[in-house]
Specification:
- By secondary structure, this protein is an alpha/beta fold.
- The chain has two domains: 123 residues, Rossmann fold, CATH 3.40.50.1000; 44 residues, no CATH class.
- It contains eight helices and six strands, in the order βαααααβαββαββα.
- The chain has a six-stranded parallel β-sheet with strand order 3-2-1-4-5-6, sandwiched between helices.
- β4, α7 and β5 form a beta-alpha-beta unit.
- α5 runs parallel beside α8.
- The chain is globular.
- The relative contact order is 0.19.
Amino acid sequence: MRAGIDLDGVVHAWSPTVRRILLAKFGVDVGESETWDWIKDHSTPEMWKWLWSNEGIRSGQYLGPLYPDALLGLKKIAYDQDIIVITARPKAAIPNTLYWLGIHGIEAKEIHVLGHSEKKSAIPCDWYVDDKPENCIDLATTGKPVFLFDQKWNASFEAPGVKRVLSWYELLKAIPGTYSG
């Protein structure tokens, strides 16, 4: 089986990492993300532009910590399924992405770093997990199970064919063919 796994907001704590980086660089705490565009909406245009510059991308925004139990969950999944990483990041983030996956020992059979306009549904998998509502809507068109990893920025989202999971433990119980309890 092929497990389509998003990184940021599911495995990698991107939002808290960027918050820390912006505080160190600009002395501004943008606060904890409560909506998808929170960081953009609470940054100055200068901060947002810097964040997506080569310097900003290399600042470590894609080298932050994992969410609790993410590594254990991925290892359980990798025991009998192929992990297919499907993430949307700038091309300049590919070296940091590969390094980050390697240092954490994440055993991915395939790694797809898509542009922000590319559809994740183009990567065939037996099930998917993502934290972005728009991606989940797209992935649901595949007819495969789609799990929305619960975050503050997607708290009010519901859609047919998308099941919310509150933790890695809950995801492991819900995915086809991996974990029974």
